[in-house]
Design goal:
With about 300 residues, this protein is α/β, with parallel strands linked by helices. Helix content is about 35%, strand content about 15%. The chain has 2 domains: about 80 residues, no CATH class; about 200 residues, Rossmann fold (3-Layer(aba) Sandwich). It contains 11 helices and 9 strands. It has a 7-stranded mixed β-sheet, with helices on both faces. Helix 1 crosses helix 2 and helix 2 packs across helix 3. One of its GO terms (cellular component) is cytosol. GO terms for molecular function: nucleic acid binding; protein-glutamine N-methyltransferase activity. Pfam families: MTS.
């Protein structure tokens, strides 16, 4: 998760913008505003340029893959007013970009999001396509589960990757499950993805899974207290993993023992908790999967090691 220090002097108004005639002008202006306001990034994009471009294209209702020539297209007065309004909401109100546009992307897949869920961002986008390689070659994934599903995005990625699988999506938050239901319907996967309101597996019917996946709340509580404004606008229960970040993970791994096929695997995304995980669960011999950026923050555990 990308983080930034809170701005010591929050921006209270945007500078004049009457001189900004093109999208290129507005992008340069926005990058300066992002810097002045010390806006936190990482929820939608990792650079001010990319996030502002995304916001502006969505505000103008132009395709995200627009030809670069649109950067020099003259904007109408109404379009300039709309860009100023959206930039003010982002920079002054510090509303995350995903909440402004009501969407987030993981790869080619679009998901509806709002303040009831955290904005999807996960290394599972690159790792889910590799998970079958950790199962016996003769196994077809028939049952998978996403614990702490939030918007349902990872459960849906599992369903897209494993077309013969039934996927359970679990969350304790009824509000988050409302958002997940929107996404399950939008992806036309209501027959294969089932939502459950449950504290981990407490209220979920007994199923033996081939893949148990989770991007649980893992931030230590003290860190959550000091997150940038944008991240504090996300649901705290989706981020806060307790004093050491391991509260949900401990319960999940205990309950996982009775929820896996003999060949099954648990895969957990845990942010910066690798040292704490290795210490707490040394006997499980956690296998850390390589990610493209080298963070390697996802661990895999085979069912046999949980016995």
């Amino acid at each position: 998760m990308a983080r930034a220090k809170k701005s010591p002097a929050p921006l209270t108004a945007l500078p004049p913008t009457s001189q900004l005639a093109t999208l290129r002008d507005w992008l340069a202006f926005a990058e300066d505003v992002y810097a002045r306001a010390s806006l936190a990034l990482g929820q939608v994009a990792t650079t001010a340029h990319d996030e502002a471009l995304y916001l502006f294209l969505r505000t103008l209702d132009w395709p995200l893959d627009s030809d670069p020539r649109v950067l020099d297209q003259k904007l109408s007065p109404a379009q300039r007013i709309a860009l100023r309004e959206i930039l003010a909401r982002r920079a002054i109100e510090r509303i995350p970009a995903g909440y402004l546009t009501r969407e987030a992307f993981l790869g080619e897949h679009r998901f509806y999001v709002d303040e009831r869920v955290i904005i999807p961002r996960s290394y599972f986008l690159e790792l889910i396509p590799t998970l079958a390689t950790y199962l016996p070659s003769n196994v077809t994934v028939k049952n998978a589960v996403d614990v702490c599903t939030g918007s349902g995005c990872l459960a849906l990625l599992l369903a897209h990757e494993f077309p013969k699988a039934k996927v359970d999506a679990i969350d304790l938050s009824p509000a988050a499950l409302e958002v997940a239901a929107i996404n399950v319907k939008a992806h036309q996967l209501t027959r294969r993805v089932t939502l459950h309101k449950s504290d981990v597996f407490t209220s979920v019917p007994p199923v033996k899974y081939d893949i148990l996946l989770s991007n649980p709340p893992y931030e230590p509580s003290a860190l959550c207290d000091n997150l940038p404004v944008e991240f504090q606008k996300e649901p705290r229960m989706a981020l806060d993993g307790g004093k050491d970040g391991l509260d949900i993970i401990r319960r999940l791994l205990i309950q996982a023992r009775d929820r896996l096929q003999p060949h099954g695997i648990v895969v957990l995304e845990v942010g910066a908790l690798q040292p704490a995980m290795n210490k707490e669960f040394k006997s499980l011999r956690l296998q850390w999967l390589e990610t493209q950026d080298g963070s390697n923050c996802v661990c895999l555990i085979h069912a046999a090691r949980l016995r």
